[in-house]
Amino acid sequence: MGDREIETVKNEDTPETPPLLAVAAVERRFGPGAAALAGVDIALGAGEILTLLGPSGSGKTTLLKVIAGFEAPDKGRVTLNGRDITALSPAKRNIGMVFQHYALFPHMSAAENIAFPLAMRGADRQSIREKVSSALALVGLSGYGERLPRQLSGGQQQRVALARAIVFDPALLLLDEPFGALDRKLRAQMQAEVKSLQRRLGITTLFVTHDQEEALALSDRIAVMNEGRIAQMGTAEDLYRRPASRFVAEFVGEANLFRGRAGVIGGPAHARTVEVKLESGGEMLASLPPGDRSVHYGADLALVLRPERPHRLDAGGTAENRVTGTVAEAVYLGETIRYRVALERGGEILLRWPAERERLAPGTRVDLGWSAADLTAVVWT
Ligand code: ATP
């Protein structure tokens, strides 16, 4: 029993496994303007796939280049497997990369392209042959080894690039908008393939995109970037249901935004609510994100309401929040219908309801209601 006790204590004292990749306080400035990276922290566990999602110019590619070693940070540190690699040359980092624009050597066959990183590392002919052949099979291109890049389709070229990036068993895989040049259908197919490949190989992956659907389709967690910083990191559901800022609310999914001033804050610690006096008149009751410390009495707030949350109120129906309006537009989108409702007190609200629900014709007057839990309050910045 005594032994067991000691073991338990030991286990509790064992520190968590260190992340496979850690980016700490990284800054990079190119000129006198705003920094491309203004202090970025990211940690990736072994086998995880994380998507960096952000608008053009938010710093995604710069961050990837810093991790890969093509760009030196002004400040901060990058560690891989616990080793500081900030000053290491790209070739010594053991990182595989795929970019949007095919960087295959045009005069080399697919097999020679894939063999290249192995040859650089001094692998012998026999093992090169075996590894190239299994990498081609992994990306579904067995039999295409002798083709030149120009004899392959765009999707096939990106598969070769992917095979070349993983053939030397890198510790980390970086993908920078690798399917940006492909059509929608092929893109969806490649996303599924990368996800399945990533799972099968268990390779830690950082994927860059500015396309939120791609981010949702691919990853365990998403880091939203804005102006050189990580605006929020979490699961797709965290970002959608509990956006930490107006930027994230608007960048991930559709959102209705109301602006107002914080009044009384109440409710239990795990589900605090705030009464909000709206700029447009009237009041709403909203919930505060768990652990939020930024909202105080009198704060300028953005209230975020996802378009599927409001429901239609019957005559006399009650809800914590309610508005009255007239349907201005109904757009059929397949599974859902998007309504634009002009509100009686000014402004409008966007709804997205399942198509099988009761249809509302333009001109219909509706009462809409939603709960405080459906409405997230964040500071208006
Ligand atoms: P995109 O989605 O358009 O590729 P991004 O999020 O990858 O954008 P970055 O390419 O990292 O953004 O650029 C971040 C900022 O740094 C931008 O303002 C860009 O103009 C600037 N920048 C990037 N590289 C350089 C460079 N070599 N010299 C000067 N400015 C640069």
Task: Explain what the structure shows.
- This protein is an alpha+beta fold and 381 residues long.
- It has helices at 2-13, 60-68, 110-120, 125-138, 154-166, 184-201, 212-218, 236-241, 246-251, and strands spanning 21-28, 37-44, 49-53, 75-80, 83-84, 95-99, 172-176, 204-209, 221-226, 229-234, 256-266, 273-278, 283-287, 300-305, 311-312, 321-332, 336-343, 348-354, 365-370, 375-379.
- The structure holds adenosine-5'-triphosphate (ATP).
- Adenosine-5'-triphosphate binds at residues 30, 36, 54, 56-62, 210.
Please name the defining characteristics of this protein.
381 residues, alpha+beta, six-stranded mixed β-sheet, 20 strands, disordered N terminus, binds adenosine-5'-triphosphate
Short description:
Helices cover 25% and strands 33% of the residues. The protein has helices at 2-13, 60-68, 110-120, 125-138, 154-166, 184-201, 212-218, 236-241, 246-251; strands at residues 21-28, 37-44, 49-53, 75-80, 83-84, 95-99, 172-176, 204-209, 221-226, 229-234, 256-266, 273-278, 283-287, 300-305, 311-312, 321-332, 336-343, 348-354, 365-370, 375-379. The strands form four sheets. A six-stranded mixed sheet has the order 6-7-8-3-9-10, with helices on both faces. Strands 13-12-11-14-20 form a five-stranded antiparallel sheet.
List the SSEs and their pairings:
Layout: H1 2-13, E1 21-28, E2 37-44, E3 49-53, H2 60-68, E4 75-80, E5 83-84, E6 95-99, H3 110-120, H4 125-138, H5 154-166, E7 172-176, H6 184-201, E8 204-209, H7 212-218, E9 221-226, E10 229-234, H8 236-241, H9 246-251, E11 256-266, E12 273-278, E13 283-287, E14 300-305, E15 311-312, E16 321-332, E17 336-343, E18 348-354, E19 365-370, E20 375-379
Parallel strand pairs: 3-8, 3-9, 6-7, 7-8
Antiparallel strand pairs: 1-2, 1-4, 4-5, 9-10, 11-12, 11-14, 12-13, 14-20, 15-19, 16-17, 16-19, 17-18
Helix pairs in contact: 3-4, 3-5, 4-5
Adenosine-5'-triphosphate binds next to helix 2.
